[in-house]
Structures are given as C-alpha cells and as structure tokens.
Amino acid sequence: MNFYTTSIAALVSFYILLLIVVFFFQRNLLYHPSVNNYLKNQNSNEPTEIEKVIITTNDKIELTGWFYKKNLDKFKTILFFHGNAGSLENRTYKLNHFKDLNVNFLIIAWRGFSGNKGKPNEKGLYEDGRSAIRWLKTKGINEKNIILYGESLGTGVAVEIAQKENYAGVILESPFTSMIDMGRKYYPFFPVRFLLKDKFESYKKIINISVPILIIHGKVDKIVPYRMGKKMYEIANEPKYFYSQEYGDHMVDYDEKLLLTLKKFIQSLN
Question: Which residues pair with 218 in a beta bridge?
Fold first, then answer.
C-alpha cells in the first residue's frame, strides 16, 4: 500500500469516526441549556408580578414556567416557546414588554433547561409545548384565546402545535425552515439528512396553519439566515405579516417599531 492509498484510507477512517461521534453527540450541538448568550445586556432578573408554576408532561417531566395574569377573560394569552440556549431569565427583557401589550403570558422552560429534568429532543419539546396548552386550558383559556409565540428553536414547536388548530394567532421570531437546512449551513460536509435525529421540518408544516401569522426576522441574523424567515413567510397562508428589522440580529431588539407591530397584530386578533 503506497503513501497516497494509506493517506486516503486514514482520511476515510477519520471521516467515518467523525460521523459516528457527531451522530451520538449531535444533541449537544443543538441544545445549550447552560449557555447564557441572550442577555442582551439587560436586567436578567425574573419579571415582577409573575406566578411561578410547575407543569407536568405526560411522560412525567416537571417543567418550570412563569405565568402572568392581566385579565384572562378580556385579553389574549401568549404562550412563549424559547430558543435552544439559556434560561427563562434571559427572556426577561421581552417579557417585561408583554405587560404593556394587554396580554397574559405563560413561558415554559424546556426539559433539560432552567433546572428541569430530562433531556431535550424534538418529540420531547412537542410534548412540553402541548403540556403547556393543556395547563392553560385548566385555567379556562381555550385555543381561540391563545397566541403561540416561538423564538428561534421555539418556532419549530409553535409551527408543529399550530397545525390544523384554531389558535388566535402565531408569532414566529427568527424562524428556520428546517433543522436539516440549518445543519447543511453549518456542516455542509456531512450527510445531514441521514444523520439528524431532530429534523423540525417547519416548512412542511406551516402550510397546515390557517390562523394569522406574524413572522419577525432581523436582516443581520448571524445564526438563522434571514432568507429562511422570508421563505417561511412566502409559504405561509394568509392572513400573514412580515416584520423585517434592518439592524436586527438573531435576538431582535424590542424597539418601538417592533412593539408597535406586535401591538397591532395582537389587536387584530380581537
């Protein structure tokens, strides 16, 4: 065996070994519960006037949540699904604004996040989201008064749950088309479609949503390409709205224009 043949064999062996490692450890690359990169230099304390709640899933995982009641009969309730990194506290700068939008809200931490037991995966996150819906219904809040709000990874859960249901509306912040497309962006040298366990194929599901949708995306998003948000908007059914933030990164700034957009969308659902 000559040098070149030996080198090629070594490279192939290394590539196969790398594939095996990636396959078994891929969820460590996707879910980052201990990474606090969404603080945005904001106060990370929990919002005032929230009720800390525990929501139990069908597979017996206890999820930490924050519930804010302004008026359950008069106002819609936002169910907030956060992204793939950080804790509930990292979303405080957003939640504090919700109180000015005449809404109630519930935010849950995924399994494996914010001290919750369990390990995150696609099927588990869908169960977490549906468990939150069931919990809201025990409070007398029905689907037509719930707005699903997905942030980044949370958009995959919001789209899954909203299919063929009669929620008040859906808000998608920095949505991706699928985790397969995201994997191809970051790991173009791997056969992502065959390796990936958690595919979150939102582009296939958004066509099954018939309620109003607002999609928000920053033009300088360094994590999820802006084109994916535009693609999701193009696929979505009417009524649909798109808010583009010129300077917005992956976690868009909650400036006056965005807050006005959110307020108008929520008011349009009443």
Answer: 245
DSSP conformational letter for 165: -
**CA distances in angstroms from 107 to 2, 68, 135, 144, 240, listed in the order given:** 61, 9, 12, 18, 24
What is the rounded average pLDDT of the residues 97-114? 94
Q: What is the DSSP string of 234-251?
A: HHSPSSEEEEEETT--SS
The reply to whether omega before 212 is within 30° of 0 (cis) is no
How many whole angstroms separate alpha carbon 155 and alpha carbon 115? 22
Q: Which two tokens stand for residue 138?
A: 């025990």
CATH T-level topology, domain 31-268? Rossmann fold (3.40.50)
In the chain, where the domains are located: 31-268
The pTM of this model reads 0.93
pLDDT at 69 over 70: yes
pLDDT at 167: 98
